[in-house]
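Worked example 3. Consider a protein that binds phosphoenolpyruvate.
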Amino acid sequence: MKPRAEDVNDITGRLISILNNREPDVRSQEETEIFEEGDRMPDESVILMADDLTPSETVWLDKSGILAFVTHRGSVHSHAAILARSMNIPAITGIDIREEWDGKMAVVDGYTGEVTIDPDSEYLEKMTAKMRADGKKQELLRELKGKETVTKGGKKIHLYTNISSVKDVDSVLENDGEGIGLLRSEFLYLESEGFPTEQQLFLAYKTVAEKMNGKKVIVRTLDIGADKQADYLGLEKEDNPAMGYRAVRICLNRPEMFKTQLRAILRASVYGNISVMFPMIISVQEVRECKRILAEAKKELAAEGIACKDVETGVMIETPAAVWISEELAREVDFFSIGTNDLTQYTLAIDRQNAKLDHIRDTHHPAILRSIQMVVENGHKSGVWVGICGELAADTSLTKMFLDMGIDELSVSPSFLLPVRDAVRRLE
Ligand code: PEP
Ligand code: MG
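Given these inputs, the predicted complex is written out as structure tokens:
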């Protein structure tokens, strides 16, 4: 009955929204709590202040008038912040100014993480000048469109993009992404009110593949669970969700659900250059099981006379276990993509959602950098290419180190594409 109880909650929330003349735009009663009764998204542009934003709330919100997100909870590595980044919306986490703020004018500086309520005219002038200077910088970066991501000495690297939805492809093309290094496919599930059908998934992947016109598109299979919840999945609440039932752990337990996604990916493969990548891997057996179900899906399609291509397969290296067995994993796949967000969380034992730990979340920790080096070496030994798709890929203070390590690909949010290309092109 537990999953049904969540359905009842969801329906209750929706009914209350409708009776209050509000769009039922969020998914469950629990999630509607960020809105006060009777609140609607105002017509003018706003800064959205909340205690917290779950990934599904971020997906469901009407973002057209949102200038910035400011939340009390969450950290720079939480999915809501990553989503905001991919939508080019400044987001600041870990501050609580709900009392003082309430309707006043405010300035959010996404570069410094400062929020200034009721700014005086001098400050406003200073910030307007900063915005103008930033606009000029963006203009200069736009001159790098169409240019290669290559160092002065001729060393090339693939520069791909992370996206969460079909809509994001426009900003990939606008910022000259050379491919999609991470399609976080779970957001198609979060946007949906029930299990998406094979046809719905197929159409989404096909659109992305076609729009990318032959450029690489790496679809990461469903990484749901932990902070990414959809009521219809009926997942139980867990004490330690980040270390719990998520990603391939769910997919391998529900092979039919997994196969539906894999069939959709395979069907879409004929419309472009699609690869498939499995998240949260900790063992060779898991990879073999994922590949077995992929092969089964392919066989089924062939028997039904439906065309599909051979797709490259890869795994995310985002657990310390995967780092340590990368030599064995490399014999199973075509590529590795290092997920530094989770790898940092699990290696340093620092919850990526917890803003209180931001001061000790050392993303340049030697344990992380050595892990990356080890994965590159083990990957290359077996002819496997190695990329980074975690947020660290966009850290331009490490670009030189990544190239020296032999990283083959960096995958970043669309707005970081040109800054990273700029950093690469400045290297000797
Ligand atoms: C990662 O963990 O670095 C990653 C890219 O995956 P996600 O942020 O979606 O967990
Ligand atoms: Mg991850």
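Take a moment to read the result before moving on. Residues 279, 318, 339, 341-342 surround magnesium ion (ligand 2) (CB under 6 Å). The two ends are 62 Å apart (CA to CA).
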